[in-house]
Write a structure and sequence with these properties.
Blueprint: E1 10-12, H1 21-26, H2 37-54, E2 61-66, H3 69-80, E3 86-91, H4 94-105, E4 109-114, H5 123-132, E5 137-141, E6 143-144, E7 149-150, H6 153-162, E8 166-170, E9 189-191, E10 204-209, H7 211-215, H8 227-234, H9 245-261, H10 263-283, E11 299-303, H11 310-321, E12 323-327, E13 336-340, H12 348-364, H13 373-382
Parallel strand pairs: 1-12, 3-4, 3-5, 5-8, 8-9
Antiparallel strand pairs: 2-10, 6-7, 9-10, 11-13, 12-13
The structure holds pyridoxal-5'-phosphate.
Length: 385
Amino acid sequence: MIPLPERERILLGPGPSMVSPRVMRTMAAPVLSHLDPDLMAMMDELRGRLTAAFRAPEGSFSFAVSGTGTSAMETAVANLVGEGTRVLSIVGGYFADRLAGMSERYGGTVTRLSYEWGRAVDVDAVRRALTATPADIVTIVHAETSTGVLNPVEQVAAVAGEHGALTVVDAVTSLGGHPLEVGKWGIGAAYSCAQKCVGAPSGVAPITFSPAALERRVKARSFYFDLGLLEDYWVRRKYHHTICASLLYALREALLMVEEEGLEARWARHRHHHLALAAGVGAMGLSLLPPEPERLWTLNAIRVPEGVDEAAVRKRMLQQFDIEVGAGLGPLAGKIWRVGLMGASSTPAIILLFLGAFESVLRAQGAAVPRGAGTAAALDVLGGR
Ligand SMILES: Cc1ncc(COP(=O)(O)O)c(C=O)c1O
Protein backbone atom coordinates (compact mmCIF):
# COMPACT_ATOMS: atom_id res chain seq x y z
CA MET A 1 0.00 0.00 0.00
CA ILE A 2 1.30 3.46 -0.87
CA PRO A 3 1.56 5.44 2.39
CA LEU A 4 0.22 8.95 2.82
CA PRO A 5 2.92 11.64 2.53
CA GLU A 6 4.68 12.26 5.83
CA ARG A 7 6.68 15.31 4.85
CA GLU A 8 5.49 18.56 3.35
CA ARG A 9 6.43 18.92 -0.30
CA ILE A 10 7.62 22.39 -1.30
CA LEU A 11 5.17 22.98 -4.13
CA LEU A 12 6.86 25.31 -6.62
CA GLY A 13 5.30 24.02 -9.80
CA PRO A 14 2.62 25.78 -11.83
CA GLY A 15 0.08 24.81 -9.14
CA PRO A 16 -1.09 23.55 -6.77
CA SER A 17 0.77 25.81 -4.38
CA MET A 18 1.21 25.08 -0.68
CA VAL A 19 -1.81 25.35 1.56
CA SER A 20 -1.43 26.96 4.97
CA PRO A 21 -2.25 24.82 8.04
CA ARG A 22 -4.96 27.34 8.92
CA VAL A 23 -6.78 26.56 5.67
CA MET A 24 -6.17 22.80 5.97
CA ARG A 25 -7.62 22.71 9.50
CA THR A 26 -10.98 24.05 8.34
CA MET A 27 -11.52 20.91 6.32
CA ALA A 28 -11.68 18.85 9.51
CA ALA A 29 -14.89 20.68 10.54
CA PRO A 30 -18.08 18.59 10.34
CA VAL A 31 -19.53 18.15 6.87
CA LEU A 32 -22.70 20.08 6.14
CA SER A 33 -25.05 18.97 3.43
CA HIS A 34 -25.23 20.96 0.24
CA LEU A 35 -28.64 22.40 1.22
CA ASP A 36 -28.00 22.94 4.93
CA PRO A 37 -29.15 26.47 5.83
CA ASP A 38 -25.83 27.15 7.58
CA LEU A 39 -23.86 26.16 4.49
CA MET A 40 -26.12 28.21 2.25
CA ALA A 41 -25.62 31.25 4.49
CA MET A 42 -21.87 30.69 4.25
CA MET A 43 -22.21 30.48 0.46
CA ASP A 44 -24.03 33.84 0.44
CA GLU A 45 -21.05 35.32 2.27
CA LEU A 46 -18.69 33.59 -0.09
CA ARG A 47 -20.35 35.19 -3.10
CA GLY A 48 -19.60 38.61 -1.59
CA ARG A 49 -16.00 37.63 -0.78
CA LEU A 50 -15.45 36.43 -4.35
CA THR A 51 -16.94 39.60 -5.83
CA ALA A 52 -14.48 41.56 -3.67
CA ALA A 53 -11.51 39.37 -4.66
CA PHE A 54 -12.31 39.84 -8.35
CA ARG A 55 -13.04 43.54 -7.77
CA ALA A 56 -16.20 42.83 -9.75
CA PRO A 57 -18.91 45.49 -10.13
CA GLU A 58 -22.18 45.67 -8.25
CA GLY A 59 -24.73 43.26 -9.74
CA SER A 60 -22.12 40.68 -10.74
CA PHE A 61 -22.77 37.03 -10.01
CA SER A 62 -19.71 35.51 -8.36
CA PHE A 63 -19.59 31.97 -7.06
CA ALA A 64 -17.42 28.86 -7.07
CA VAL A 65 -17.83 26.12 -9.65
CA SER A 66 -17.48 22.59 -8.25
CA GLY A 67 -14.35 21.53 -10.07
CA THR A 68 -10.89 22.82 -10.95
CA GLY A 69 -9.93 25.83 -13.05
CA THR A 70 -10.98 24.03 -16.22
CA SER A 71 -14.53 23.68 -14.89
CA ALA A 72 -14.70 27.43 -14.40
CA MET A 73 -13.30 27.94 -17.91
CA GLU A 74 -16.05 25.66 -19.21
CA THR A 75 -18.72 27.51 -17.21
CA ALA A 76 -17.66 30.81 -18.77
CA VAL A 77 -17.64 29.35 -22.27
CA ALA A 78 -20.80 27.24 -21.95
CA ASN A 79 -22.84 30.27 -20.95
CA LEU A 80 -21.38 32.90 -23.29
CA VAL A 81 -20.57 30.93 -26.44
CA GLY A 82 -23.28 29.20 -28.44
CA GLU A 83 -23.83 28.14 -32.04
CA GLY A 84 -22.35 30.84 -34.28
CA THR A 85 -21.10 33.14 -31.48
CA ARG A 86 -18.16 35.03 -32.97
CA VAL A 87 -15.12 34.59 -30.77
CA LEU A 88 -11.70 36.20 -31.05
CA SER A 89 -9.32 33.96 -29.11
CA ILE A 90 -5.97 35.45 -28.21
CA VAL A 91 -3.59 32.49 -28.19
CA GLY A 92 0.02 32.59 -27.05
CA GLY A 93 0.19 29.54 -24.84
CA TYR A 94 -1.25 26.20 -23.82
CA PHE A 95 -4.16 27.46 -21.73
CA ALA A 96 -5.26 30.08 -24.24
CA ASP A 97 -5.34 27.28 -26.80
CA ARG A 98 -7.52 25.20 -24.45
CA LEU A 99 -9.92 28.14 -24.08
CA ALA A 100 -10.11 28.59 -27.87
CA GLY A 101 -10.70 24.87 -28.40
CA MET A 102 -13.43 24.86 -25.78
CA SER A 103 -15.14 27.79 -27.50
CA GLU A 104 -15.12 25.75 -30.73
CA ARG A 105 -16.66 22.76 -28.94
CA TYR A 106 -19.54 24.95 -27.78
CA GLY A 107 -20.29 26.00 -31.37
CA GLY A 108 -18.41 29.30 -31.51
CA THR A 109 -16.98 30.61 -34.76
CA VAL A 110 -13.47 31.11 -33.47
CA THR A 111 -10.80 33.33 -34.98
CA ARG A 112 -7.41 32.77 -33.39
CA LEU A 113 -5.02 35.64 -32.93
CA SER A 114 -1.84 33.64 -32.43
CA TYR A 115 1.41 35.18 -31.23
CA GLU A 116 4.75 33.99 -29.99
CA TRP A 117 4.85 31.75 -26.91
CA GLY A 118 6.88 33.65 -24.32
CA ARG A 119 5.65 37.11 -25.32
CA ALA A 120 2.60 39.20 -24.36
CA VAL A 121 -0.01 39.96 -27.01
CA ASP A 122 0.29 43.24 -28.91
CA VAL A 123 -2.81 45.36 -28.20
CA ASP A 124 -2.71 46.89 -31.70
CA ALA A 125 -2.87 43.42 -33.18
CA VAL A 126 -6.05 42.83 -31.14
CA ARG A 127 -7.50 46.10 -32.47
CA ARG A 128 -6.67 45.13 -36.05
CA ALA A 129 -8.14 41.64 -35.59
CA LEU A 130 -11.40 43.03 -34.20
CA THR A 131 -11.65 45.54 -37.05
CA ALA A 132 -11.05 42.84 -39.66
CA THR A 133 -13.26 40.22 -38.03
CA PRO A 134 -15.84 41.58 -35.58
CA ALA A 135 -16.43 39.39 -32.54
CA ASP A 136 -19.01 39.00 -29.79
CA ILE A 137 -16.51 37.56 -27.33
CA VAL A 138 -12.77 38.05 -26.84
CA THR A 139 -10.97 35.37 -24.82
CA ILE A 140 -7.63 36.05 -23.17
CA VAL A 141 -5.45 34.42 -20.53
CA HIS A 142 -4.24 37.01 -18.04
CA ALA A 143 -1.38 34.95 -16.61
CA GLU A 144 -0.28 32.33 -19.13
CA THR A 145 1.09 29.60 -16.89
CA SER A 146 2.68 27.73 -19.79
CA THR A 147 5.00 30.62 -20.71
CA GLY A 148 5.25 32.82 -17.60
CA VAL A 149 3.73 35.78 -19.48
CA LEU A 150 1.38 38.47 -18.17
CA ASN A 151 -1.03 39.77 -20.81
CA PRO A 152 -2.28 43.38 -20.94
CA VAL A 153 -5.86 42.51 -20.03
CA GLU A 154 -6.85 46.04 -19.07
CA GLN A 155 -5.96 47.39 -22.52
CA VAL A 156 -7.40 44.40 -24.37
CA ALA A 157 -10.72 44.64 -22.48
CA ALA A 158 -10.87 48.36 -23.38
CA VAL A 159 -10.30 47.63 -27.08
CA ALA A 160 -12.85 44.80 -26.99
CA GLY A 161 -15.35 47.16 -25.36
CA GLU A 162 -14.80 49.76 -28.11
CA HIS A 163 -15.70 47.03 -30.62
CA GLY A 164 -18.79 45.90 -28.69
CA ALA A 165 -17.21 42.60 -27.62
CA LEU A 166 -17.31 41.06 -24.16
CA THR A 167 -14.00 39.94 -22.69
CA VAL A 168 -13.64 36.56 -20.99
CA VAL A 169 -10.51 36.43 -18.83
CA ASP A 170 -8.68 33.38 -17.55
CA ALA A 171 -7.33 34.55 -14.19
CA VAL A 172 -6.33 31.10 -12.97
CA THR A 173 -2.73 32.11 -12.20
CA SER A 174 -3.39 35.78 -11.44
CA LEU A 175 -6.28 36.06 -8.94
CA GLY A 176 -4.69 37.01 -5.63
CA GLY A 177 -1.22 37.39 -7.15
CA HIS A 178 -1.49 40.15 -9.79
CA PRO A 179 -3.75 43.20 -10.00
CA LEU A 180 -7.08 42.20 -11.53
CA GLU A 181 -9.93 44.70 -11.67
CA VAL A 182 -12.97 43.12 -13.28
CA GLY A 183 -15.14 46.20 -12.74
CA LYS A 184 -12.68 49.00 -13.56
CA TRP A 185 -11.29 47.21 -16.60
CA GLY A 186 -14.74 46.40 -18.01
CA ILE A 187 -14.23 42.63 -18.07
CA GLY A 188 -17.27 40.51 -18.95
CA ALA A 189 -16.44 37.30 -17.11
CA ALA A 190 -13.36 36.10 -15.25
CA TYR A 191 -12.57 32.81 -13.61
CA SER A 192 -9.80 31.33 -11.53
CA CYS A 193 -9.00 28.34 -9.35
CA ALA A 194 -8.51 27.74 -5.63
CA GLN A 195 -5.09 26.09 -5.72
CA LYS A 196 -2.73 28.83 -6.86
CA CYS A 197 -2.52 32.39 -5.50
CA VAL A 198 -5.73 32.04 -3.49
CA GLY A 199 -4.20 29.33 -1.31
CA ALA A 200 -6.76 26.53 -0.95
CA PRO A 201 -6.78 22.97 -2.31
CA SER A 202 -8.13 22.46 -5.82
CA GLY A 203 -11.73 21.43 -6.33
CA VAL A 204 -13.76 24.63 -6.28
CA ALA A 205 -13.13 27.36 -8.83
CA PRO A 206 -14.04 31.05 -8.40
CA ILE A 207 -15.86 32.74 -11.26
CA THR A 208 -17.64 36.03 -11.82
CA PHE A 209 -20.07 37.25 -14.47
CA SER A 210 -20.54 41.01 -14.76
CA PRO A 211 -24.06 42.42 -15.29
CA ALA A 212 -23.19 42.87 -19.01
CA ALA A 213 -22.16 39.23 -19.27
CA LEU A 214 -25.29 38.05 -17.45
CA GLU A 215 -27.35 39.84 -20.09
CA ARG A 216 -25.49 38.22 -22.96
CA ARG A 217 -25.66 34.65 -21.78
CA VAL A 218 -26.68 31.91 -24.20
CA LYS A 219 -28.54 28.70 -23.49
CA ALA A 220 -25.86 26.40 -22.09
CA ARG A 221 -25.48 23.03 -23.73
CA SER A 222 -24.02 21.71 -20.50
CA PHE A 223 -26.26 20.77 -17.58
CA TYR A 224 -23.53 20.81 -14.92
CA PHE A 225 -22.23 24.25 -15.95
CA ASP A 226 -25.59 25.89 -16.74
CA LEU A 227 -25.47 29.35 -15.17
CA GLY A 228 -29.25 29.50 -14.68
CA LEU A 229 -29.25 26.22 -12.77
CA LEU A 230 -26.20 27.27 -10.77
CA GLU A 231 -27.90 30.54 -9.89
CA ASP A 232 -30.98 28.58 -8.82
CA TYR A 233 -28.77 26.60 -6.48
CA TRP A 234 -26.43 29.32 -5.14
CA VAL A 235 -29.10 32.03 -4.84
CA ARG A 236 -32.51 30.32 -4.69
CA ARG A 237 -31.40 27.19 -2.78
CA LYS A 238 -32.72 24.74 -5.36
CA TYR A 239 -30.85 21.44 -5.61
CA HIS A 240 -28.49 21.16 -8.57
CA HIS A 241 -25.52 19.12 -7.35
CA THR A 242 -23.94 18.03 -4.04
CA ILE A 243 -21.28 20.67 -3.44
CA CYS A 244 -18.34 19.75 -1.19
CA ALA A 245 -18.75 21.74 2.05
CA SER A 246 -15.17 21.01 3.17
CA LEU A 247 -13.73 22.64 0.06
CA LEU A 248 -15.96 25.66 0.59
CA TYR A 249 -14.67 25.98 4.17
CA ALA A 250 -11.13 25.94 2.81
CA LEU A 251 -11.88 28.47 0.09
CA ARG A 252 -13.57 30.75 2.61
CA GLU A 253 -10.62 30.59 5.00
CA ALA A 254 -8.18 31.25 2.17
CA LEU A 255 -10.22 34.29 1.10
CA LEU A 256 -10.28 35.52 4.70
CA MET A 257 -6.50 35.33 4.68
CA VAL A 258 -6.42 37.28 1.41
CA GLU A 259 -8.63 39.95 3.00
CA GLU A 260 -6.48 40.11 6.13
CA GLU A 261 -3.33 40.55 4.06
CA GLY A 262 -5.09 42.97 1.71
CA LEU A 263 -5.18 42.49 -2.05
CA GLU A 264 -2.67 45.27 -2.78
CA ALA A 265 -0.24 43.97 -0.16
CA ARG A 266 -0.62 40.46 -1.53
CA TRP A 267 0.12 41.63 -5.08
CA ALA A 268 3.16 43.51 -3.75
CA ARG A 269 4.36 40.38 -1.92
CA HIS A 270 4.15 38.32 -5.11
CA ARG A 271 6.04 41.01 -7.04
CA HIS A 272 8.75 41.40 -4.42
CA HIS A 273 9.39 37.69 -4.20
CA HIS A 274 9.40 37.28 -7.96
CA LEU A 275 12.04 40.04 -8.18
CA ALA A 276 14.14 38.25 -5.57
CA LEU A 277 13.91 34.95 -7.43
CA ALA A 278 14.65 36.62 -10.78
CA ALA A 279 17.72 38.30 -9.28
CA GLY A 280 18.89 34.96 -7.90
CA VAL A 281 18.36 33.13 -11.15
CA GLY A 282 20.15 35.92 -13.07
CA ALA A 283 23.14 35.78 -10.71
CA MET A 284 23.38 32.06 -11.39
CA GLY A 285 23.84 32.85 -15.08
CA LEU A 286 20.34 31.72 -16.07
CA SER A 287 17.59 33.69 -17.77
CA LEU A 288 13.81 33.94 -17.76
CA LEU A 289 11.85 33.39 -20.97
CA PRO A 290 9.67 36.54 -21.20
CA PRO A 291 11.21 40.02 -21.41
CA GLU A 292 11.10 41.86 -18.09
CA PRO A 293 7.92 43.93 -18.41
CA GLU A 294 5.95 40.90 -19.59
CA ARG A 295 6.91 38.57 -16.75
CA LEU A 296 4.52 37.01 -14.31
CA TRP A 297 5.22 37.43 -10.62
CA THR A 298 3.48 34.16 -9.91
CA LEU A 299 5.21 31.85 -12.39
CA ASN A 300 8.85 32.05 -13.44
CA ALA A 301 9.77 30.39 -16.73
CA ILE A 302 13.51 29.64 -16.44
CA ARG A 303 15.39 28.69 -19.61
CA VAL A 304 17.20 25.34 -19.39
CA PRO A 305 20.91 25.97 -20.06
CA GLU A 306 22.69 24.15 -22.84
CA GLY A 307 23.84 20.65 -21.89
CA VAL A 308 21.60 20.32 -18.80
CA ASP A 309 19.07 17.50 -18.61
CA GLU A 310 15.82 19.30 -17.77
CA ALA A 311 13.92 16.26 -16.49
CA ALA A 312 16.86 15.01 -14.40
CA VAL A 313 16.99 18.35 -12.59
CA ARG A 314 13.31 18.20 -11.70
CA LYS A 315 13.67 14.60 -10.55
CA ARG A 316 16.62 15.40 -8.29
CA MET A 317 14.92 18.49 -6.88
CA LEU A 318 11.98 16.32 -5.87
CA GLN A 319 13.91 13.31 -4.60
CA GLN A 320 16.69 15.07 -2.74
CA PHE A 321 15.01 18.28 -1.61
CA ASP A 322 11.25 17.59 -1.71
CA ILE A 323 10.86 20.54 -4.07
CA GLU A 324 8.44 20.31 -6.96
CA VAL A 325 9.23 22.31 -10.10
CA GLY A 326 7.16 22.24 -13.30
CA ALA A 327 8.21 21.17 -16.79
CA GLY A 328 7.61 23.10 -20.02
CA LEU A 329 4.43 22.39 -22.00
CA GLY A 330 3.96 21.96 -25.77
CA PRO A 331 6.70 23.67 -27.78
CA LEU A 332 8.46 24.65 -24.54
CA ALA A 333 8.79 21.06 -23.28
CA GLY A 334 12.43 20.44 -22.36
CA LYS A 335 13.26 24.13 -22.82
CA ILE A 336 12.06 25.70 -19.57
CA TRP A 337 11.39 24.94 -15.94
CA ARG A 338 8.29 26.53 -14.48
CA VAL A 339 8.77 27.74 -10.93
CA GLY A 340 5.63 29.01 -9.26
CA LEU A 341 5.71 31.43 -6.34
CA MET A 342 2.04 31.57 -5.46
CA GLY A 343 0.08 32.10 -2.27
CA ALA A 344 1.67 30.31 0.68
CA SER A 345 4.57 29.21 -1.57
CA SER A 346 5.66 32.82 -2.08
CA THR A 347 7.91 33.37 0.96
CA PRO A 348 11.55 34.47 1.45
CA ALA A 349 12.46 31.16 3.13
CA ILE A 350 11.13 29.13 0.21
CA ILE A 351 12.97 31.29 -2.33
CA LEU A 352 16.27 30.73 -0.53
CA LEU A 353 15.60 27.03 -0.19
CA PHE A 354 14.82 26.77 -3.87
CA LEU A 355 17.88 28.73 -5.02
CA GLY A 356 20.22 26.74 -2.76
CA ALA A 357 18.83 23.39 -3.91
CA PHE A 358 18.72 24.48 -7.56
CA GLU A 359 22.36 25.55 -7.45
CA SER A 360 23.39 22.21 -5.97
CA VAL A 361 21.42 20.17 -8.52
CA LEU A 362 22.67 22.23 -11.48
CA ARG A 363 26.28 21.94 -10.31
CA ALA A 364 25.82 18.17 -9.98
CA GLN A 365 24.77 18.27 -13.65
CA GLY A 366 28.02 19.99 -14.55
CA ALA A 367 26.52 23.47 -15.07
CA ALA A 368 28.92 26.33 -14.34
CA VAL A 369 26.87 27.94 -11.59
CA PRO A 370 28.84 30.10 -9.14
CA ARG A 371 28.52 28.97 -5.53
CA GLY A 372 26.17 31.05 -3.39
CA ALA A 373 25.56 33.72 -6.06
CA GLY A 374 21.82 33.01 -6.41
CA THR A 375 20.99 33.20 -2.72
CA ALA A 376 23.22 36.26 -2.25
CA ALA A 377 21.48 38.15 -5.07
CA ALA A 378 18.04 37.14 -3.78
CA LEU A 379 18.99 38.29 -0.28
CA ASP A 380 20.01 41.67 -1.67
CA VAL A 381 16.41 42.07 -2.88
CA LEU A 382 14.84 40.51 0.19
CA GLY A 383 16.80 42.79 2.47
CA GLY A 384 19.15 40.24 4.04
CA ARG A 385 22.94 40.18 4.24
C1 LIG B 1 -3.94 29.69 -17.01
C2 LIG B 1 -4.62 28.40 -16.66
N1 LIG B 1 -5.87 28.19 -17.08
C3 LIG B 1 -6.52 27.05 -16.78
C4 LIG B 1 -5.93 26.05 -16.05
C5 LIG B 1 -6.68 24.80 -15.73
O1 LIG B 1 -6.86 24.67 -14.36
P1 LIG B 1 -7.05 23.25 -13.66
O2 LIG B 1 -5.82 22.45 -13.90
O3 LIG B 1 -7.26 23.63 -12.23
O4 LIG B 1 -8.25 22.63 -14.26
C6 LIG B 1 -4.63 26.22 -15.59
C7 LIG B 1 -3.95 25.17 -14.81
O5 LIG B 1 -2.82 25.26 -14.46
C8 LIG B 1 -3.96 27.43 -15.90
O6 LIG B 1 -2.71 27.64 -15.48
